[in-house]
Amino acid sequence: DAMVIQNPRYQVTQFGKPVTLSCSQTLNHNVMYWYQQKSSQAPKLLFHYYDKDFNNEADTPDNFQSRRPNTSFCFLDIRSPGLGDAAMYLCATSIETDYEQYFGPGTRLTVT
Amino acid sequence: GESVGLHLPTLSVQEGDNSIINCAYSNSASDYFIWYKQESGKGPQFIIDIRSNMDKRQGQRVTVLLNKTVKHLSLQIAATQPGDSAVYFCAENMWTSYDKVIFGPGTSLSVIP
Fold it and tell me: Which of B103, B107, B108 to mutate to probe the A interface, most A CBs <10 Å?
């Protein structure tokens, strides 16, 4: 089945130690998104790619970076995780930016 | 700033009853609205959407109503089942320099057996 896959599902990292989360899709969608979701809150958009064009949200900290080497894969790099970065990170895809998004199961990040 | 908000943070309904989840939006330029369901430990799942040229859209057991005059969106779930227990988010799509989806704060629906 076509789907959005996120690895790992759970990630523990140390304060200040770089970490990379990965997302892959078999839907061949143009757009890939990264969201941060904290407990009992709505997903917050960090950035998205339309094909290779990167769109960063104005309030996304510089500590968060992203790469999309090809259509299928997208990575979220957190250069120096702080305790406040502990959250669920959701990857989503859509065929176009004004169509519904398909979400992966998320990666829960713990910072110790 | 522009935002999407929900009137009720929690909602409890009896199994078999109908559920109505409400959402208010403030950006009159928004032209596409989506409802997502998020179960515990999972990513949001698309339920139904509606574009601004419509005021009603029906799916299987779900109906979305859009009232552009008062900037209000609702999700109706018929014959609510225990499997409907989840957090429901409305989201609006607005154009800035690109299409951007903004999620509302969410409503937690609990179905009482």
Answer: B103
Query: How does strand A107-111 pair with strand B10-14?
Result: unpaired
Superfamily of domain A4-106: Immunoglobulins (2.60.40.10)
Contact check, Cβ <8 Å, B44/A98: no
Give B-chain residues touching A106 at CB under 8 angstroms: 41-43
Q: Which residue matches tokens 């990040």? A: A109
What would the pLDDT profile of B10-54 be if each residue is shown by its tens digit? 999 999 999 999 999 878 888 899 999 999 989 999 999 999 999
In tens, the pLDDT along A96-108 reads 888 899 999 999 9
Question: Phi-psi category of A40—alpha, beta or left, where left has phi over 0 and alpha has psi -120 to 50?
Answer: left
Domain ranges of chain B: 4-112
CATH number attached to the domain at B4-112: 2.60.40.10
Domain extents in chain A: 4-106
